[in-house]
């Protein structure tokens, strides 16, 4: 038992777990990171990071057989021959879709930090005030001011490129040099700004080192080369991942132990001591069971897996899952509505091009219901667009001279616009454990029962109308609306189920991500989210994690946890 005793345990090594590990180790705690997947070392385990298309057996396409066997992960745009080793195959990790839900996962050291799209926007005060003001979910127990210093703290370390805009809907952060809009994007930006005084159009913010600072060089990371082949793992460590950044930093302290291939089955609640003492682990390869013990436990297994672990952590005291006296564990799951797109073309600018493969798009912060309720739907959506030229490597032509000729000329400009809509957390959108099906490690399968509602349809309609109107006013032609009709989950921003709040009767976590009824357990991945906002969520998970570790360690020093 002694060798299985640590000061802290972190479950999961992805974006939020990496941050928990770094912060706990830097504060001097002997920390065990339990990761269900295989080990992935920065650089060494990025087999395709510099591969050319002709070096891949299927020229970077996924064979038909794989598509048939794994329909869910194949719907993810980033799943290709060069990245497939970082994604979970449906056939290997089944779950129950009570309603269609595309659950995209990355089970390895680094989790989805290797394969995320790296877009990073802070929440605004309007997002934290949303549920309280509009009367849905529960009021967040924190406000923007509580998180702002922690956003700054993580942004400095991660390296976020962005422009200073002074917007209250999308607060500025600690930015590296911003990427540039191309000429058509600027033209659209200016025309939209000229017509609408409620719409801001800015270059995207993303976790790329456009000009590395000392803090990044010390991590062994270098400048982004605009290859945009990030999902393979970056040879320069230029985008943020746990593997290139937080985990090596944690390791340098000498306080980190990472145990890959460790499937956390549940948390151990000692009924006599009246507290959580550790975790039960099943070895992924040998299937052997082990227990590990610690004074404090951080759950960072990704939103739905953290729900699963807590629901599976039953004891005499908590027969329905850890801390679940209220019965709301697994409920109020929400996500982002990505269904709407608007495509268009742009005439002119034929003598203009742009540099590289920029890893971000243009962003328009939410402009609906921001300061008060104004529409016939709740909340709103963020809009993204980008413009590019066809041709140059993308021309469709037969092989040979004709192919080379077609691919050496840039084609016409096209414009792509998409939405990222807030969804309203509802009790009926929930996850639960299968009563009769288990995976090969003896863990019940997760049943997912999450769907759209009328509010989502209204938001989609509004985006289509506004998107088309804006692109028309911006001078685009051939404008086409699209509804991907994609299932929830494919947004890969699933959140909630273990939400924060003030009252243990209506929430599981307090304002420091600490379980109301199990105070040495902290949940700082997407499961903690009371509402979804319209921003890409991961930078908020990072900030909340660093903040929660700071609080947990202070509480341990005071003797309140441990
Ligand atoms: C293609 C794609 C694009 C994305 N783009 C963006 C974006 O632009 N911006 C953004 O903010 N977010 C984006 N995301 C989402 C982002 O990846 C997630 O929000 C983020 O990774 C969540 O961090 P996490 O720590 O909660 O989970 P993860 O990074 O998924 O890490 C969880 C870890 O826990 C491990 N684990 C799970 N269960 C167990 C268990 N029982 N025992 C032990 N270990 C376990 C997993 O193997 C995994 O390593 C994108 C995701 C994908 C796939």
TrEMBL record:
SUPFAM superfamilies referenced in this protein's UniProt entry, alphabetically: FAD-linked reductases, C-terminal domain, FAD/NAD(P)-binding domain
Annotated ranges, domain Glucose-methanol-choline oxidoreductase C-terminal: 425-544
Molecular-function GO terms, alphabetical: flavin adenine dinucleotide binding; oxidoreductase activity, acting on CH-OH group of donors
Keyword Nucleus (UniProt): no
A UniProt-annotated Pfam family: GMC_oxred_N
Keywords: FAD, Flavoprotein, Oxidoreductase
Ranges where the Glucose-methanol-choline oxidoreductase N-terminal domain occurs: 97-314
Named cofactor requirement(s): FAD
Membrane listed as a keyword: no
Family per record: Belongs to the GMC oxidoreductase family.
UniProt-recorded name of the protein: Choline dehydrogenase-like flavoprotein
Native organism: Algoriphagus antarcticus
Top-level taxonomy: Bacteria, Pseudomonadati, Bacteroidota, Cytophagia, Cytophagales
